[in-house]
Every structure is written in structure tokens, then in C-alpha cells.
Amino acid sequence: MSDLIGLALGLLLTLFVFSYVLGDNWLYRLAVHLLVGVSAGYAAVVVTFDLLVPLFLNWPRMLVTAPLQGGLLTVPVVLGLAFVLARATPRTARVGNLALAVLVGIGAAVALVGALVGTLLPQLLSAGSGSPVVTFISVLITICVLFYFHHQLQAVAVNTAVSAPRWQQLIGGTIGRALLMMTLGAVFASLINTSLTVLTAHLASFTQFVVSLLA
Question: Minimum mean pLDDT among 10-24, 127-141, 151-165, 171-185: which range?
Fold first, then answer.
């Protein structure tokens, strides 16, 4: 019975999300708010019970067995609590923003390093290992797209027509723009295909479950 309720709720929320096709409505906003709320609640529970609770339970023992590590652990805990409590009053709210700034900065740094080391660097290292024709086409497409962004930045900077050579306008404004649009179209089509595949699998499992109950 619980499986049937879960499948029915999943199908209902899926239909709520698809109702956005008809325009922004309260059903779509309800589904989005539920998604954000459940995700935030799940993340808070995981961080609390998998990180904070074991940390505070082992903290007194670390102060006895490893005083240096326990003392170093005390500093960020005390500073974090002080910064969070400082946001309670408007006078010290700016001091409390330091904790948020550190959190956002560390998150951005981790994301940047992950993108560079996990995505960009492997692509650069493997770019020359394939066919020379494919490598040449990849480099050519990259140059055209970079020219497009350079062309657009110049237009925004001077807020007028770009006084660049016609070959740069051709490569950046025409060829680079077309290649970028094709790439974004392919990515969007892939996302739509993935979403439809997930929806089809969800509907198939729901139908199979209902048929098994009726049989």
C-alpha cells in the first residue's frame, strides 16, 4: 500500500511540474517548493547526523587523547557559533556575514577546482590523443566560440556597433554564434530526451504496479 501511495504522489507531482507548459501556476510552484524543501531537509539531516553529531560526540575524547587536534577543532566550532549568533542583531550582522562569505568562498573554490581538474584538464590532455582531423575541428570550433564571446563583450563595453575587422565579425558574430546555438540546442535536446525517458519509465512502473494490483 505504501508503494502505491508513493507512486501516486510521484505521478501527481510529475503532472504538477508538467503543468508549467500551460503557464506559471500554483501547482507548479507547489511542486518546486516541495522539491526545494525536501532537498534542504534531507541535506540538513545528513549533515547533522553524519557530520555534526559524530564530531561533537568524539570531541571530548579527542581533547583527552589528542589535545592538539581537539584544540584545533575547537577554533572553527567556536568561531562558527559566534558568527551565527552575531547575525541575530542588526548591529553585529556584518560580522556574521563573514561565516557566509567563508562558506560561499570555499564552495566556489571547490567547484572551480573540481571543474578544472575533473573536466577541463582531462579534456585538454586527451585533445591531441585522437584523430588529427577531429582535434583540428575541435580547436577550430573553440576558437570560433571564443571569438563570439569576445565580439559580444566588445559590443557590451562600447554599447555601440563593434568596430572590429570584418573577418572577426564573421568568425565571432556569425560562425561562432551558429556553433554555440547548435551546441546549446544539442544539450537542450539531450536534457529533453533524458527527461522523457525518466517520465516514460516512471509511467511504465506505475502502470505495471496498478495492473499487478488489479490482477
Answer: 151-165
What the block records as the C-alpha cell of 141 is 570550433
Cα 102 → chain centroid: 19
Q: How many CB atoms lie within 10 A of CB 166?
A: 8
DSSP output for 117-143:
IIIIHHHHHHGGGS-HHHHHHHHHHHH
Per the prediction, the chain carries an average pLDDT of 79
Contact 145, 176 (CB under 8 A): yes
Amino acid, single-letter form, for residue 6? G
Comparison of pLDDT for 107 and 156, the residue scoring more: 107
Domain boundaries defined on the chain:
1-65, 131-215
pTM: 0.53
Contact 203, 11 (CB under 8 A): yes
pLDDT-derived band at 42, boundaries 50, 70, 90 = very high
* Surface-to-core class of residue 148, CB atoms within 10 Å of its CB (0-12 exposed, 13-18 middle, 19+ buried): buried
**Residue 112 to residue 15: CA distance in whole angstroms:** 36
